[in-house]
Write a structure and sequence with these properties.
By secondary structure, this protein is mainly β. Helix content is about 5%, strand content about 40%. The longest helix is centred in the C-terminal third of the chain and has 10 residues.
Length: about 375
């Protein structure tokens, strides 16, 4: 809490005796000068001089009553000046940038009162010192073009205990009207997704004003982060595993279809699970290892990861005999090489992949499980 404000004025000292007025109305002179009046101007500041643990984001103001400023500076511990602006009346100076953690700031102000007398003001205050500062990152990155299922993800380097405080610092602006909500998937990650898939060609601006936000336990945000990205065309993959066909839809109409072999039907552990996931990565080549099932260092082409549970859409010419006929993979969607290349070239990170017909469901332990939750469950994970 700030201390009481201290008001600094320069008072002119009165010297000698004060003149007296006799009963007759005649002035009786003393030996000194006439009484000097103090200046009218008064300078105050917020935060007050000697305040401690001051917020680094609240604006600093220096104000003069009955006068106007001729000079105002606020300097940090290293002597660097803090940017600020005077109002049109030149009676209020307001800082125009955030302060630093654990710094001492010093005021120096001069003003002239309405009586023409000068006044000066000096003093200092200290800003809060966090127990720790926590970095945050935003995804998608700047200028990315992503699919209509892409969530916005804020990830923190350490646990956030005051989730509401962090969430209040997050804003999403869209060029088209979109209903959406934040949901905390862990104490280090909060995602925003629309209720339905994004409208195609939506422009999205995300601002995370996290610098100075108290996450609890004396931990504070390290820096503000922002991103601007674009939603691309509407493309959705639909796979009904018993059909052995992967269908690609554009704007709701079938755009392409490819014969496929999915996860083994008889073993739920090897199914291509039910649920809506997204394309997480596009990898021209990938190495697959699963010692449990007897293979390591298997190289495949045109790979689109759809979960971190192990599922991909990829080329598998070694399984050519079963593609389009039988489900024999260990959970991936196997395509002929030419089809895998065609799909790979058409895909964007964030394209939805909807799987039905399997015995097992996608686990919600995947890194991107946003679309595996219904809307009411998703909203219930908001901290606000």
């Amino acid at each position: 809490m700030y201390e009481r404000r201290k008001v600094f004025k320069i008072a002119l000292a009165a010297g000698g005796a004060v003149g007296l007025v006799a009963c007759s109305g005649e002035e009786v002179s003393g030996s000194g000068a006439p009484d000097a009046q103090p200046p009218k101007a008064e300078i105050t500041a917020e935060p007050a001089v000697d305040a401690a643990e001051v917020s680094v984001t609240a604006p600093v103001t220096v104000t003069v009553a009955e006068g106007s400023f001729t000079e105002v500076t606020l300097t940090n511990s290293e002597g660097g000046e803090v940017r600020g602006e005077l109002n049109a009346e030149k009676n209020t100076w307001t800082s125009a940038e955030s302060l630093g953690y654990g710094q001492t700031y010093t005021y120096a102000a001069k003003a002239t009162g309405t009586d023409g007398k000068p006044v000066e003001f000096t003093g200092s205050f200290g800003t809060l010192q966090p127990a720790a500062v926590i970095r945050a990152t935003l995804n998608p990155i700047d200028n990315a073009e992503v699919g209509v299922g892409m969530p916005i993800s804020v990830k923190f380097d350490a646990a956030v205990s005051d989730r509401a405080a962090a969430q209040r610092a997050l804003t999403v602006e869209t060029s088209k009207e979109v209903e959406g909500s934040w949901a905390w998937l862990s104490d280090r990650q909060v995602d925003w997704r629309p209720r339905e898939y994004w409208p195609a060609n939506t422009e999205v601006n995300v601002t995370a004003k996290l610098y100075g936000v108290h996450y609890g336990g004396g931990n504070y945000g390290k820096a503000d982060v922002t991103t601007k990205f674009t939603i691309g065309r509407n493309q959705v993959v639909k796979i009904h595993t018993p059909d052995h066909v992967m269908r690609v839809y554009r704007d709701g109409a079938e755009h392409a279809s490819y014969p496929c072999s999915n996860g083994k039907d008889a073993d739920p552990n090897l199914n291509t699970p039910n649920g809506t996931v997204i394309v997480m990565t596009r990898e021209p080549t990938s190495i697959f290892d699963n010692e449990r099932y007897g293979y390591t260092d298997v190289k495949k082409k045109w790979c689109c990861r759809i979960s971190n549970h192990g599922e991909y859409i990829h080329e598998n010419e070694e399984n050519r005999a079963n593609i389009g006929k039988k489900n024999t993979s260990h959970g991936c969607v196997n395509l002929f090489e030419k089809d895998a290349k065609a799909y790979f070239d058409s895909a964007l990170i964030g394209d939805p992949v909807e799987v039905t017909g399997a015995k097992a469901d996608f686990p919600t332990t995947s890194a991107v499980m946003d679309w595996l939750l219904d809307w009411e469950t998703w909203k219930s994970k908001s901290a606000l």
